[in-house]
Specification:
Layout lengths: L16 H8 L4 E2 L1 E5 L6 E5 L2 E6 L2 E8 L3 H9 L1 E6 L5 H7 L16 E3 L5 E3 L4 E13 L2 E13 L5 E4 L2 E4 L4
Antiparallel strand pairs: 1-11, 2-3, 2-6, 4-5, 5-10, 6-9, 7-8, 9-10, 11-12
């Protein structure tokens, strides 16, 4: 799917990426690990571009860079797990963002994981976990947009970890 504007607006320039990042940094977003695969084939990454889409059927949307191993692994496996992180899991968020150099299945070594009902990795200590069957995929610019149909959930505990202005923060109870 390409982002195409009506012909009379197609010559309008887009804003610079740095300006877009600055603007979107003002929108707090939840932090999650999206993962797929089994054993040494597990792949996962940290995302904050995650959103619910509809209730019938229950679906969510996640954006993943097309050059990521996780992007291609989700396409190959046909499903993915979403582990919503809580405020005490900043280290895991950074690990799955690649900050410590860990890659591939190695990223899963520092925390306990379960394989969900559709054989996708689910973080045992997640604030909440969702399992998704791949419903749709579209390429838009540098990213793949994955729409997952939610087939299982598991509640956990803890207050959410959020990304705001480029910093990870624990959301305190209200």
């Amino acid at each position: 799917m390409n982002c195409q504007l009506p012909s009379e607006k197609s010559d309008i320039q887009s804003i610079e990426a740095v300006e877009f990042r600055k603007a979107m940094g003002n929108l707090p977003s939840g932090v999650a690990i999206v993962a797929t695969g089994m054993a040494l084939g597990r792949r996962g990454l940290t995302v904050s571009s995650l959103s619910s889409i509809c209730m019938e059927p229950p679906c969510l949307l996640v954006g993943i860079h097309g050059g990521s191993e996780t992007h291609d692994a989700i396409l190959a496996n046909g499903g993915f797990g979403v582990s919503l992180l809580h405020g005490d899991q900043e280290d895991l968020a950074l690990r799955f963002a690649g900050r410590d150099g860990a890659k591939g299945a190695q990223r899963f070594d520092t925390a306990p994981w379960n394989q969900g009902v559709i054989d996708v990795p689910i973080l045992q200590s997640a604030a909440y976990a969702l399992e998704c069957v791949l419903h749709r995929h579209h390429r838009v610019g540098t990213h793949g947009i994955f729409i997952g149909r939610i087939v299982a959930t598991r509640a956990g505990q803890g207050n959410p970890l959020v990304n705001f202005r480029g910093e990870l923060r624990a959301l305190l109870p209200g």
